[in-house]
Amino acid sequence: MDLRLIENAVPSAAEREAIDRLLGPPSSAWRGGAERRPGLDTHVAYGGHALRSQRHMLLPALHAIRDATGYISPGGLNYVCQRLDVPPADAYGVASFYALFSLEEQPPVVAHVCDDIACRINGALGLCQQLEDQIGPEGTPSADGKMTWVRSPCLGQCNRAPVALIQRAGLDARDETQAPTTGDAVLAAMAGEATPKPDFATDGSYALDVPQLLDPDADLYLLRRIGRIDPENIDSYRAAGGYEALRRAFEIGPEGVIREVEDSKIVGRGGAAFPKGRKLGDVARAPARPHYLVCNADESEPGTFKDRVLMEGDPFALIESMTIAGYAAGCEQGFIYIRGEYPRSVERLQHAIDMARQKGFLGRNIMGKGYDFDIEIRRGAGAYICGEETALFSSLEGYRGEPRSKPPFPTQVGLFGKPTLVSNVETLMNLPRIVLEGGPAYAAIGTEQSTGTKLFCLSGCIQRPGIYEFPFGVTLREVLEAAGGVPEGRELRAVLVGGAASSFVTPDELDMELTFEGTRAAGAALGSAVIMPFDDSVDMTDIILRIAAFFRDESCGQCVPCRVGTVRQQEALQRLVAGRPLGSVEDEIRLIDEVAQVMRDASICGLGHTAPIAVQSAIHKLHLFNGRSATT
Amino acid sequence: MLKGIRNGAKLYVVDPRRTSSAQWADAWLGLDVGSDIALANAIGREIIAAGLENREFIARSTLNFEEYKAAVEPYTLEYAERETGVPAAAIRELAHEYARADRAQLCWTLGITEHHNAVDNVLALINLALLTGHVGRWGSGLVPLRGQNNVQGGGDMGALPNKLPGGVDVENDADRARFEKVWGTQIPAKMGWHLSQMFEAMEDRKLTALYVIGENPAQSEADVGHALELLKGLDCLVVQDIFLTKTAELADVVFPATASWCEAEGTVTSSERRVQRVRKALDPPGDARDDIWILSALAERMGVNWEYPTAEEAWDELRSLSDWHRGMSYARLEAEGGLQWPCPSEDLPDSPFLHGRLWEDPPVGPLAPFHAVEHQPPVEALTEEYPIRLTTGRRLESFNTGVQSSGYRSPLHRGETIDIHPDEGAALGIADGEVVRVVSRRGAVEVPARYDPTLRPGLAFMTFHFPDDVATNLLTINATDPKSGTAEFKAAAVRIEKLSVAARPEETEAAVAAGGDD
């Protein structure tokens, strides 16, 4: 391609090395090689399709540069572009799409401090204040130029709030999440003090994530191995029943697996609740080849952290589940797309993949059954929208993470334009049970329309936050009670059910059944199973302002209704909160409702469709602005 | 082509320069200037040696294969690597990819034809298409890409020294008689001169009057200094053009003409032989007149009444004489959005594949002959005195001598430069942007040097888009292909000289100012 490289921008040695480690040495001077070989590079050059088919390496390459130097310089961008035959203008558009990449020079150590809803009611704002006092304003380098800090949307550790993600670039590049943390701990970590590596066997940290571990009566399935096996040892997993399901899958064959999944009536846990069996069958029958399997682990919905707990606590189960799904759908290659804010999930899963490969559970001829399958991990880089499946494909392919219009659906035209089974972590991890116990047995768990067990993410104003597993059919009241309810002496005001893209419910709706049909009937949605209660100490206007700011930041900007609508919504809310509405309070609310309708009707993807839901439910159900007048 | 690439087509680019197209290619073969036949013959030999030739097609539809096979036998990959500079492995890959492709095209422009052996270059490529059967079928073929919308149409209408309209040979008595009957006049029985021969005839004073329509030879000819002398020496020069070109400025009479794409009715023919209607959208400015009107008025002054035909009437007369165009009424051109010749009758469809006949069993019409051709290096060899190969060409945003493109502002316009590799610049002590003197055996120009890493040491590039500033064609060689009359614009030998310090006052001052107390 005619690249039009950035003029006078040369990669540093560190950038070159980082890219060469990822992509191998450059093939010629035309591809960024340092030396022009006379008689060779002067008269021949290769490129074209072979090179451009590597476009999907763009995101890993940008990560490699960031890990090496902390930011993506024009020279580094040039070098990546020469290596992958992508014009810098195009690659710049990709790099600038993601929050975790900086195209401006920045210090090698950056703390991302979550100030999203769960964290801000658990001390995050004080933490930010401390960093501002001791380092300087958000985004500016510290006095010694070695570090900086920024505010971040939800980091997926809401049960451990407040939370910080510390990025360290350079030779010892290692991203690290601190949860829960304090200002002092963040500062110490930024200064280079080593944080002890958590040990699953000795520290009780899994009980922080899964409080039901301490309840001998809890009937867990998805969570049953967490904290009880060594997540870094495949034999520990196998001793706890691992890989029995894959063996069973090979016995009943792909058709058998599809039949059991159809019989199980399981629907997707990612939010859209689509019947899993149908998706699986559609991909398996799609004539185009190859088929791809994509595990959507870009869990970014504020308040959601269940997939993280599964990946960190039982990584081999995800690998086995994906292998079963890949076998049924006829895939030879699977990808796990993990949000960039989950460094430990990446580490654990990469280790699990390597180990599974070593033991013959991935790669050629798995378990001697003649099935070839492998898995690659791709790190996201800070973009909520990439949890939308088609945006995830775009991101994985090396483009800006912008959603695509559907149809065509991923089962026919998905990743790289091929039939693709895309599935959420939790959904996939139900497959072993379905295969082992049979579809009908699984369908007997839960309710008629919502079968199986479900993970709920409890955080916010709650005594024992964490992930809870219940068979479908449990009510909101029961879940809240299991988690100990709001803190002693406080009064429940509202519960955010489903996530920021879902709605608030009031204390008189607690008998709502937490099933897909039950929440729908109550005018809510199960979403990613966020259950976030708020008590009377919380300023709810602050919460919905944060939600509105979140959607404005995270709108990818591709379609007008969402790009403009999320901004208008935030502006109207700010005016209402400030007590300076344009016209009357009712006028502003009418405007918010009208904008919401346009976003619902005309946005390309779910982000635009759902961005106004929480705001509208806060206005209409919590009556947030009732009684406010234009002058107060 | 980019659409084809997006659809998965492979692209191989053969060009001394690593052009923008080459950067899209699966492989770029940067051969040395003027070694095209060495490369093509080596590809042919490799295809035969690997047994990848299309034997069925060769046996059924071609002639002289054995002669060709014998002629290319010495053109081994090693020989080709030596002559072209391209590694043998790349040549082999291209040969195999071309031969094994389900469908393949050879596309070329002036890099093949602006050589002293232009026709041989083309024949060498035709041989490859015959060898593999990549001709006359959907998606396959030989595609000379034209630089203008109607180059093909000009030739089809008889603006060639040896042809009457419709590709009719002027020296064929029976055909000529047909035209004479309709035109009511006598046509010379011998073919005329082509452009280069005309200039030779001017030199010999055999040609003393010239009527130029829509050309600017005063700036476009190779060795333009000499051409200018000859044009000035004419007894009478008439120029018909839409601009007052440098040639028109020399003319005794200038006929202001209309822009044929917007101010006149008519047709154009693209390089795929597709005839399309052109419609008048604007009234021409001032005294500008339609070409047909000017020619008719001229005829009238000469005592013949052509009755000022409309474009359609002129077209219908052509149709009465040309088998290619007989079926192409204006109504049909309009209804079908263009037609490809040959289209001999209004009842018959047009012909998307000129050489589809070769695939009939048995083939219709004459068989296609191989023409064995030999590699000949450029006329002007590189010497110690003139060590750098200068090749000329075009840039995306400009058009030929700039008559039609220099009048526009474009962010891409950057004036004439001599492009050289940065290493060459360093070796010669020439900075990027420094004005240098470029000298060939015929002349010299002063022009800024521009570093261009897509070249290589020993290879320099210039355009001729800005002849008013830099007369590039003072440098080019007037060695012409005997068969086509095309000059070897692509290969001159030059040297690049630093200008003396005295010749660069501004730079000297700047250097002194910057030098400080060093």
What does this structure look like?
The complex is a heterodimer of chains A (632) and B (518). The relative contact order of chain A is 0.09. Chain A is built from 26 helices and 14 strands. The mean pLDDT of chain A is 94. With 632 residues, chain A is an alpha/beta fold. The longest helix of chain B has 15 residues, at 118-132. Chain B has helices spanning 2-6, 20-24, 36-49, 55-61, 65-72, 77-84, 88-100, 110-113, 118-132, 151-156, 173-183, 195-203, 217-220, 224-232, 246-250, 291-301, 311-321, 330-336, 422-428, 505-515; strands spanning 12-14, 27-29, 62-63, 105-108, 141-144, 163-164, 168-169, 209-213, 236-241, 253-256, 266-269, 274-278, 339-340, 368-369, 388-393, 418-420, 435-439, 444-451, 459-463, 492-498. The model of chain B is unreliable at 505-518 (pLDDT under 50). By secondary structure, chain B is of the alpha/beta class. In chain B, helix 6 crosses helix 7. In chain B, the strands form seven sheets. Chain B has a six-stranded mixed β-sheet with strand order 16-18-17-20-15-19. In chain B, strands 8-9-10 form a three-stranded parallel β-sheet. A three-stranded antiparallel β-sheet of chain B has the order 11-12-13. Chains A and B meet through strand 1 of A and helix 2 and strand 2 of B.
Structural features:
heterodimer, A: 632 residues, alpha/beta, 5-stranded mixed beta sheet, 4-stranded mixed beta sheet, 40% helix, B: 518 residues, 6-stranded mixed beta sheet, 3-stranded parallel beta sheet, 20 helices, globular, disordered C terminus
